[in-house]
Amino acid sequence: MTNVGELKSSGYQSISIKDELRQNLIKHLEAGTTVFGEVHGFEDSVLPELERAILSRHNINFLGLRGQAKTRLARLMINLLDEYIPYVTGSEINDDPLAPISRFAIDLIAEKGDQTAVSWLHRSQRYSEKLATPDVTVADLIGDIDPIKAANLKLSYADDRVIHFGMIPRANRCIFVLNEIPDLQARNQVALFNILQEGDIQIRGFKIRLPLDLQFVFTANPEDFTNRGSIVTPLKDRIGSQILTHYPANIAVARKISAQEARINEAQASRVYVPDLAYNLLEQIIFEARDSEYIDQKSGVSARMSISMLESLVSTAERRALINKEKTTTVRLADFMGIIPAITGKVELVFEGEQEGAAFVAEQLIGAAIKTFWPNLFPKIGKLNKKADLSPYTGTTEAIYSQGGVILYDECDQKEYASCLNKIKPLEDLMLQYQPKFEPKDQLFLKEFMLWALAEQEQLGKERLKNGFQFNEFI
């Protein structure tokens, strides 16, 4: 169909974008499918609320801390749109050929009638996104008089054809996302009132009746309401649904998100093996961060941190393998030192954390994750006890003392790494006693984990050397 006449003959009927989203969502609900499969952990909380909002034809505000997939949800909504919709060829605002609203489209159809050319817009082009910053103006969002257009068309400023439409009118019949809405200055938020409710816009004295057809999605961070700005009350009143997002509730969900989002290519994946315990420890670090007294909890700890940590962890092990000319390697606990830069740049520290330093806080988080996991694998450690009959770990610590300590070098090859850990026979005994079914390929990591955990709980001393770690008697 290339013109208005053919479109009418086909029986095409215009519907609003909110009804379009609603109808396609109903089809998915009836079929038991979803377009939000890339988002994990929201199945019983955020997604039902989002679906109810779409069924209600509401504009939506996602309210949540950073890294809670707010923008991802908005972007996935385009999959609820029809694959193609028709629009008047040449229209700046995607005019519906059967219900034009712009001066351009109305005049064109009046002149050419059913011969008016029609083009087709793919759903991937029906998404517009703007980050709200203090420098955004009403002209950016709504529009302004264009002197160049007036000169080229030889029109006076009294003619509404000299108007240059802003982002919102150009997103007609689309999903328009305004991220971090509290950062938008209040006077610019006011400009959205009528667009959300009545459809009227006013540009430099021109009062234009433009019943724009939009699905608005806003995102906001609760911290911004006190630190940088707020959503003005009349605007909040015009947003149909406010949906609270949240972080993953457990490690299993967090792992699924990190594995999906981390940029680890096939070459890295084939060279570096990550033990299951290492994956879990990595995610536990971010849970520890969200409870840490050194970190500003109002700011939140983004899921992007665990994604970056996983990428850094794999790269640390990959670098060692390349240096040692090894085709494959396994992640070690010492490799977790390589994730510190991925932590320090993504957390906001409170005063106490600033005093201690970001690197110190990162190491504390790693240690806290190790201590959290220890009771799930081995008997809980009480106070330091030298009596072998009262502590299952005395044999291990004494064996380490007797050989003058253990040094694990950061860049040692896999053979040296295995030899160093396997010569501590009590580690093997403990593993066989308490974790006899542990995967063989994960056992070296478990042994190193035992050393680190004993050190974190003051059963062993751990000293950072220039190029490794030394475990010896705790002083």
Q: Give me the CATH architecture of the largest domain, please.
A: 3-Layer(aba) Sandwich
The tally of beta strands, per DSSP, is 16
CATH class of the largest domain: Alpha Beta
Give the CATH superfamily of the largest domain.
P-loop containing nucleotide triphosphate hydrolases
Described by strand count, sense and barrel closure, the largest sheet is: 5 strands, parallel
Question: What would you note in describing this structure?
Answer:
With 475 residues, the chain is of the alpha/beta class. The protein has three domains: 4-244, P-loop containing nucleotide triphosphate hydrolases (Rossmann fold, 3-Layer(aba) Sandwich), CATH 3.40.50; 247-377, Orthogonal Bundle (Helicase, Ruva Protein, domain 3); 381-475, Arc Repressor Mutant, subunit A, CATH 1.10.10. It contains 23 helices and 16 strands. The chain has helices at residues 4-9, 17-31, 46-55, 70-76, 103-112, 138-141, 147-153, 167-170, 186-190, 193-197, 224-227, 233-238, 251-261, 266-271, 276-289, 303-323, 340-344, 351-356, 358-377, 394-402, 414-422, 425-434, 443-456; strands spanning 60-63, 84-88, 118-122, 127-131, 143-145, 163-165, 174-179, 200-203, 206-209, 214-220, 241-244, 272-273, 329-330, 406-409, 461-464, 468-472. The chain has a five-stranded parallel beta sheet, covered by helices on one side. The N and C termini lie far apart (83 Å). Mean pLDDT is 90; it is low at 384-388.
